[in-house]
Amino acid sequence: VRLFLVSILAMMTASAVAADDTALREEANAIFNPLPHAPPTLAGNPFNTDKVELGKLLFFDPRLSSSGAISCSTCHDLAEGGADKLSKSIGHGGQEGRRNAPTVFNSVFNIALFWDGRARTLRQQARGPIESAVEMNNTPEALVATLKGIPAYVEKFSKAFPEQEEPLNYDNVTKALESFQSTLLTPDSPFDRFLRGEDKAMSELQLRGLRQFIGQGCVTCHRGTNVGGNAFFTFGMMIAPEVRVRPVNDHGRMEVSGRSLHDYTFRVASLRNVARTAPYFHSGIIWDLREAVRIMAKSQLNATLTDNDVEEIVAFLGSLSGTLPQVDQPTLPEATKATPKPVE
Amino acid sequence: VRLFLVSILAMMTASAVAADDTALREEANAIFNPLPHAPPTLAGNPFNTDKVELGKLLFFDPRLSSSGAISCSTCHDLAEGGADKLSKSIGHGGQEGRRNAPTVFNSVFNIALFWDGRARTLRQQARGPIESAVEMNNTPEALVATLKGIPAYVEKFSKAFPEQEEPLNYDNVTKALESFQSTLLTPDSPFDRFLRGEDKAMSELQLRGLRQFIGQGCVTCHRGTNVGGNAFFTFGMMIAPEVRVRPVNDHGRMEVSGRSLHDYTFRVASLRNVARTAPYFHSGIIWDLREAVRIMAKSQLNATLTDNDVEEIVAFLGSLSGTLPQVDQPTLPEATKATPKPVE
Q1: Among B61, B90, B275, whose Cβ lies nearest the Cβ of A69?
Q2: Which residue in chain B has the smallest CA separation from A57?
Q3: ipTM of the complex
């Protein structure tokens, strides 16, 4: 009889958990979307594999910079969660950038690019680092001249943009980069598998963290496909964070819009792969995810989390680490005698 | 009858070429060795796959540098022929190095490392860039402290060096790097396939180039497995090269040995993949392989080559481009709150 009762009890518990999971899954699916396995359609930039391959070469090619030493992958290193493990990236001539480099992974699903959202598309975004004096320090004209001096690139642009007469131009550089970057997805995280209906994809601790993440109100901003990345909010909506975390000389989106309403407003960070992309925030000085969670709870929700709350939420955030794309080292096309050389 | 004669003539020519190829192959095999498919045994550093995998992570990890921004692959980019496409590499704080970065590919078969040969093994060599103020600007102590602060590295060192009690130490960092680099081979070039007996592996032009390469005397220095890399010779044995190509303030091996005999003496460059590793020479200002061949012929052999000679030799050098190893982007271990942070 005792054994029988134990069995009944075990069955009841299992069924209660299952019912509970189903309700949580429904709630979560109303807030989030699983990350797709395939890139979305890019407006004005139809997909073809030659373009993706070209974009991959450009992404890894330091000749996009005037010094010939800095590539997209310098700061958006696929080995380092699609970013770098620095507070601020180091660019042209050893200069330090102004804000922490965001990850390139899944960035195609963000509403806009850069912390202040000043680029609407990855295509627009690509111009930023190329032309920035502290990053690649190049010009569209010089870059196109360099690429035109590399015969294999001339050929690859023709293949990638077969309908065009003069395919090697700056616009197509950014289109190819956008195409490649749109393929850098990290699907099938435990959270995605949970959303799609897979039982036991997430641990009990992670599920409790998800409940906290919803219940505490984190989902006000961090929602959708990228668990963030799709809206703008003020950093410090409730309580201003410490000055070292929110430096007073970085006014975020206000610098773009000119509207005081946007002071300290930033694009909400995507939390996908957040466990892989320390340090955190635009200021990049917080290296501990626990600390980052506490800062967000306080500044955005005026909530003081217990150690247990933090542990659960951090466990949930760990479930947002997806399968990294396998990207092998490309072989960059050779220059010729006629190719413009790096500027010393 | 005419058809018959043509056939006979064609057969005779074919057989003459075949006989000729066989003789050339024998001669070449007495001078060169085909590149092996597997790494050689490393003295004092037995092979195991965990060690190679660890070495790969270290090779790609910018946390080997004090700034956290420069990895081995920054200057020895597998996408760029195992080097970079710069006259001189750019290191810590944007500083320019002194000599052109040599390729990491097949470097395990060189007699010594660095242009002046000051390191006998890749293991010794690894200390150079890590500790150089213009490269990674790190110290053994700081590097070991950083790695000890990354739990996954602690585990990986234990697996790679299972017999040791304190495996995470500087010596083992260099051993793991040596292990990984010893696997970066580019076998099966047309030249290797020719040496191994494959007919038509090299074009007629390339074979004429090989004859020139032997006949002109290039093989005095460029021989063995790496078609160079296994001896020291003075740059300018016959005629001093232009000062821009051989700067007067770089005395090569004399700076290491203190012997005036070694003034302007350098380790002979390996010519494997030379078509992929412009710019050339320790000074890194010559971008055109044709020009590099002319400079070598003049300075080392006092030979003035015709355009045709140069074309043939450059074609032969093209036959030294082997199959690049497929290396996918690794995923670097995560730091923790306790991991020492990059020095600003």
Answers
A1: B90
A2: B79
A3: 0.89
